[in-house]
Design goal:
This protein is of the alpha/beta class. The strands form four sheets. It has a six-stranded parallel beta sheet, sandwiched between helices. Strand 13, helix 9 and strand 14 form a beta-alpha-beta unit. It is elongated and about 65 Å long. The two termini are about 15 Å apart.
Amino acid sequence: MLRDEFAKFEAFCFDLDGVVWEYRKILPGVCNAIQVLKSMGKSVYFVSNNSFFTKAEITNSLVTRGIQADINNVFNISYCAALYLSKHLTPGAKILSLGLSGVSDELANAGFDVIRGESMHELEVEEFEDLENMKVENVEAVVVGENPSFNYYMMCYATLALNSGAKFIGTDPDRVEKAGKFLVPSTGCIIAALETATNRKCTVLGKPNTYMLDMILDRDGIDNSRCVMFGDKMETDILMAKRAQISKVLMLTGVETRESAKGHAFEPDYIFETMNDLLVTQPN
């Protein structure tokens, strides 16, 4: 049974990594909570900065793990970045994708001619003379996504494309991701390197930008007061919710702790240990 203070909400938005799952292992209480919400006729959305996978792949991963997910309510940043560029570039435009296949595939699905960063993972710059022979195609946009295999060759290629006037788009500004007990560098670090190299500012579409959330609210006609966001990062999930003026729940199943959450000028409305906190415990 849903806690009384959440009954007023119509739309429940969930981050994925650190909230719904960790390494695709569903976190405690998630399946039951979403099942309860669905049974009450609530709208459930998944709003993620994860650019590793396509919208369809994420939906399939959720469904196969017992999560009731509607592909039309999955808003991952790879898909949304492709939508954004569809409104700003002509069909067939050449785009350099510095993410993994999730970004490249969504851009290709949108009709763009994609130079895949995955094809550059094995390329190296051994000496500066190699750069003189680097031929950069007429790229109209560079899209930076999370990429553990990002290398110096890719940085140089992207820098040349950006200095030639390509649009500079980032999927998300996440500085770190949780990897077991550790926090490791993420997309924001790649963006920062390219911003330094080009002296240009990247247009970052993912949280805390409200772009994905605005798409949900506008498409489905949802009032801000009837929407709540569940996230594990203060500087992305919770800040986005604050900017969009919706309610915000910080989950301690991911990056943040109660102590780290205090180091910000804004606060979540609720802090949950697990998703079980969304429901009322029934007496024995």
